[in-house]
């Protein structure tokens, strides 16, 4: 994938992530449950499976974003570590920004745990990109 294409995909991906972050999760869950909105979706007291699902969603969202950012700045000729660090900082900053946006929303909750998962996911995504790039 060309760096230009990666940058475009990263821009589109971050829009999807931000929009998904401000939508009421109960409204989305109700699309799959015709009996009505799910109760307690996304709260700490949910089953482990629901928590794992949200952690997986955060992991994919921010891991893919960091990968795309790293791929998008790869053409600048920077070292892999520098590229990975820039990608992690950008993805983590977006994650923190999303948590701040969620704070005043009635249907969402800002969470330090989510921000932490976002940052770890960014490290994994950028790290995997660096490993794949080193092997090619």
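Sequence proposed for the structure above (136 residues):
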């Amino acid at each position: 994938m060309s760096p230009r294409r990666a940058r475009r995909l990263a821009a589109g991906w971050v829009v999807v992530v931000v929009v998904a972050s401000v939508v009421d999760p109960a409204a989305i869950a109700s699309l799959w449950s015709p009996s009505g909105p799910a109760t307690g979706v996304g709260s700490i007291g949910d089953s482990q499976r629901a928590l794992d699902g949200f952690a997986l969603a955060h992991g994919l969202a921010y891991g893919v974003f960091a990968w795309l950012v790293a791929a998008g700045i790869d053409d600048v000729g920077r070292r892999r570590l520098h590229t990975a660090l820039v990608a992690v900082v950008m993805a983590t900053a977006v994650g923190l920004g999303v948590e701040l946006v969620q704070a005043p929303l009635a249907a969402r909750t800002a969470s330090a745990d989510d921000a932490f998962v976002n940052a770890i996911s960014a490290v994994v995504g950028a790290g995997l990109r660096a490993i794949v790039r080193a092997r090619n």
